[in-house]
């Protein structure tokens, strides 16, 4: 089976502690996005049809944007991406047992979670 891969709805911004509160205030108070905290301690914002998650990341010195891709078959997607030379980087952040998802990076070093939509 060939996996279908499409864009997901979640965008994660990993922000170091010294920028975290100002970043939250920027999106909430300056831009005026509606916040929600369905996955505390991360703070989420409605970003059109997407969700922007702001995660405090003490191990980082600068902010990074991480994207989500959906697939109908995570095993087939992993094979397809592997055959294209894309290396998994599951150690980047633990996903927990039972999730049908994994991490990759693009050639430009942008982190992507590849997951089946019903597993997160």
Number of domains: 1
CATH superfamily: 2,3-Dihydroxybiphenyl 1,2-Dioxygenase, domain 1
> What is the straight-line distance between the termini?
23 Å
* Rg over CA atoms: 15 Å
Which structural class do you get from the secondary structure elements?
alpha/beta
Tally the helices.
2
At the first level of CATH, what is the class?
Answer: Alpha Beta
CATH architecture identity:
Roll
State mean pLDDT (0 to 100 scale).
90
The major sheet is characterized as: 7 strands, mixed
Portion of residues within helices = 10-25%
Uncertain runs: none
Main-sheet strand order equals: 2-3-4-1-5-7-6
Layout of helices and strands:
Layout: E1 5-15, H1 17-30, E2 35-36, E3 43-47, E4 50-56, E5 64-71, H2 74-83, E6 101-105, E7 111-115
Parallel strand pairs: 1-4, 5-7
Antiparallel strand pairs: 1-5, 2-3, 3-4, 6-7
């Amino acid at each position: 089976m060939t996996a279908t891969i499409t864009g997901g709805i979640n965008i994660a911004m990993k922000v170091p502690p010294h920028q975290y509160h100002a970043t939250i205030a920027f999106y909430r108070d300056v831009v005026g996005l509606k916040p929600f905290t369905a996955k505390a301690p991360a703070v989420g914002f409605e970003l059109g049809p997407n969700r922007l998650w702001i995660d405090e990341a003490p191990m980082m010195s600068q902010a990074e944007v991480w994207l989500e891709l959906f697939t109908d078959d995570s095993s087939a997607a992993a094979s397809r991406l592997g055959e294209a030379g894309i290396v998994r980087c599951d150690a980047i952040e633990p996903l927990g047992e039972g999730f049908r998802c994994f991490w990759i990076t693009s050639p430009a070093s942008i982190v992507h979670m590849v997951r089946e939509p019903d597993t997160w």
